[in-house]
Amino acid sequence: MTPKRTIVVIAAVALGVVAALLSYSYLNNAQQVAYHNAKLVNTYVVAKAVPQTMTGDSALAGGYIEQKSLPTEIVPATAVTDINVIKGKEAASAYSVGQVVVDSMFVNPTVAVAQGSFSQSIPAGDVAVTISVDQVHGVAGLAVPGDKVDLLISQTNASATTESSLLQNVPILAIGQQSASPATNTASAQTTSTATVGASSGLFTFGVSPSDAARIALAQQESLGIYLLLVPPSNPVVSIPAWGTDNILTGPQN
User: Taking the model in full, what pTM does it have?
Assistant: First the structure.
């Protein structure tokens, strides 16, 4: 190779390295802007839908779990920091893309078998979908299986952040591994305090229609900041206007 060609090759490699560094810097800055420069922490999220009873080893080997940086305020306190803890365990439920992996999502196989069929508690025509929220977004852990909640989501554009109603009167089938069905709680009660585990897990499982489940999964995947609003029994469905930073002080008070 002639000296001239060598110089050309070296220059091309150098330009490639610079382009890669600039691309990384751009993407990193774009992520910071998207999260409004919030403090980010490394956590693990579901990259591909995880079916119930899938082993942790299979989930890791198959790329079902990936590491991701998320704002501290939307990461549950029980989020997994050492992904190796799910090895030798099974998925306690089916999990959708975007869910933060918390320590109660994968359990020992003996616990999974003893818990029985959770599907029996799902109303006919509905499906179960699980989201992960922190204590602030999850009404401080005050909700219990059998309660109903309204779901709010945060949407941000170039001019304002808006809180909008996603669904109303959504029944909670389970929190963590504590469900409203006595049959599925028997084994858990023999091994741990399900009330404590359920309240602090940050995992809420709802029974909704397949189309509503898709909407919830999308909101979770897009990190839209789902808020749970605990509602009283027989709460009526009402029209809720969207509230944003541009009209929060000017709208009616009810």
Answer: 0.55
Cα separation, 41 vs 225, whole angstroms: 16
CA distances to 206, 208, 217, 246, 249 from 124, in Å: 13, 10, 20, 42, 43
| CA atoms of 59 and 56, how far apart (whole Å) | 5
Could you give the count of Cα atoms lying within 13 Å of 159 in the half-sphere of its Cβ? 3
The residue among 111, 110, 102 whose CA lies nearest residue 205 is: 102
- Nearest Cα to Cα of residue 90 among 123, 50, 56: 56
Identity of residue 242: A
Pick from 125, 123, 128, 93: nearest CA to 111 = 93
- By CB atoms closer than 10 A (0-12, 13-18, 19+), residue 44 is buried
CB 4 within 8 A of CB 61: no
User: Residue 222 carries which side chain, given as an amino acid letter?
Assistant: E
The tokens for 42 are 């490394």
What are the domain boundaries of the chain?
Answer: 1-34, 35-244
Give tens-digit pLDDT for 161-205: 888 899 999 999 999 888 876 544 444 443 333 344 445 568 999
CA dist 168 to 70, 99, 199, 234, 245, Å? 27, 21, 21, 11, 23
The number of beta carbons lying within 10 Å of the beta carbon of residue 240 is 14
Q: Of 125, 140, 142, 145, give the one whose Cα is nearest residue 204.
A: 145
